[in-house]
Amino acid sequence: MTKLTKILALVLALVLALSLAACGAGGGNEPAPAPDDGSAPEQAAENTGTPLAEGEDIVVGGIFNVTGFQSPIDAPAQQAFALAIKQINENGGINGHMLKYVTYDGQTDQTVCANNATQLINTDGAIVIGGLSDSDYAYAAGAVAQAAGIPIVFSGATTPDIPEVNGNCSFMTAFGDNVCAEAAASYAYEELGARTAYVMIDNAMSYTTNLAQYFIDKFEELGGEIVLTDYSTTGDLDYSAQVQRYLANGEADIMFMSTGPDDASTVIQQFRQAGATAPMMSGDGWDSDLWGVAGDLANQDVYVATHYATSDDSPIVQNFIADYTEEYGYPPENAFAALGYDCMMVIAKAIEMCGDDITPANIRDNLEHIQGLECVTGTISYTPDNHVPAKTVVITQAVDGALSFLKNQA
Fold it and tell me: Which residues are paired to 127 by β-bridges?
């Protein structure tokens, strides 16, 4: 997705949001009009609101794609986000206020996500929103939040220009795709000794196209060679054409598979069954069920650059895993669960910093001044000029049905 396409999408989302606001219930925070020049707003209309009365609930909104092809990563994120809210309330809330959680299913649809944001702001009275693990949906919801001056913290969306495109109300919990892909390329080149790479790209998502290009740029910068680039589309069930082209060209030292979570296991299965033996690598979108149809084939030289590993023995990681398991009866499915939890803890910190003056504007301002917040997926800091946290990337390997920690890669 080009920047022009993103901007056009934002304008459409804003027009939709404003039309919905005109027809919907009153109350809440009214969005500002879309900019006349078609560009994304750089600064939000300041939403000072009315500080909460003593004991009044803080309405926190959540948007997660718990249905559709994004569900393998958004459903765990939503559960962990809700778990964090439950724990905060059980410990007395924040500054004398309990949290009221209102959440909607984005249905893996950009228009629905924009509608969700409008509903949360104009009807439900949310003063801050969290969620979404893919950038395409973050652009849509973020445009609405920006127009209304409501801070929105994305749990797993990773395109690094989200705050630049959306505006100053958008913050990311995850590192950017550039950081993830560059770490993957460095590990492939330096640790696995790869000098040639095959790259397969799902060209239906901005996440996968961006991730692949960042990998290519870094791998070539290090001295590696991209020997073949091929393409797929989200939901493909047959990769035989790509497999044939890859094998006909001769095996590369590394295969970088830039596809989404639902396709990972199928890609592994079909390439391995056809005889491809080179190490296979991807980014955080593959932090899901690699074993599905692939079974033991997923344990054969498959690496994922992601946000955390369950084998990390640090207390903050192990406590999160224990709490999630106790709450839901099974351990966190992937790193996006941890990101959902961290997303809410970031929001909680910004609310806490408000003291008795809890407004959307103060929450937004406080987010910019969070420094050194220890989270499950790493330490999070923001500045007024940078709403993307600088974190190390965790390199994992698929071993015996789980992603095993290898190293933190800068």
Answer: none
DSSP state of 24: S
Buried b (16+ CB within 10 A) or exposed e, 352-378: ebbeeebbbbbbbbbbbebeebebbbb
Q: What is the pLDDT of residues 367-389, one digit of tens each?
A: 999 999 999 999 999 999 999 99
What is each CA distance from 303 to 187, 282, 285, 376, 401, in whole angstroms? 10, 7, 12, 21, 13
Assign residue 79 the CATH number of its domain.
Answer: 3.40.50.2300
Buried-exposed string 314-324: b where 16+ CB fall within 10 A, e elsewhere: eebbeebbebb
Find residue 64's DSSP bridge partners.
105
Residues 219 and 147 in one domain: no
pLDDT tens-digit series, residues 7-47? 444 444 444 443 333 323 323 333 333 333 344 445 555 66
- Strand-pair category, 373-375 with 378-380: antiparallel
Q: How far apart are CA 232 and CA 245, in angstroms?
A: 13
- What digits encode the pLDDT tens for the residues 244-263? 999 999 999 999 999 988 89
Q: Which residues contact 239 (CB under 8 A, 6 or more apart)?
A: 232, 266, 267, 270, 271
**Contact at 8 Å (CB) between 102 and 61?**
yes
Of the candidates 84, 83, 134, the one whose C-alpha atom is nearest the C-alpha of residue 113 is: 134
- Closest by CA to 61, choosing from 137, 139, 154, 134, is 154
For the whole prediction, is pTM greater than 0.90? no
Q: Average pLDDT, stretch 337-348?
A: 98
Do 114 and 20 sit in the same domain of this protein? yes
**Enclosing H/E stretch for 244:** helix 240-249
Q: Is the pLDDT of residue 6 over 60?
A: no
Query: In terms of residue numbers, what domain contains 59?
Result: 3-46+55-175+317-391
Whether residues 87 and 208 fall in one domain: no
Q: What is the pLDDT of residues 88-128, one digit of tens each?
A: 999 999 999 999 999 999 999 999 999 999 999 999 999 99
Q: Name the 3-class secondary structure at 201.
A: strand
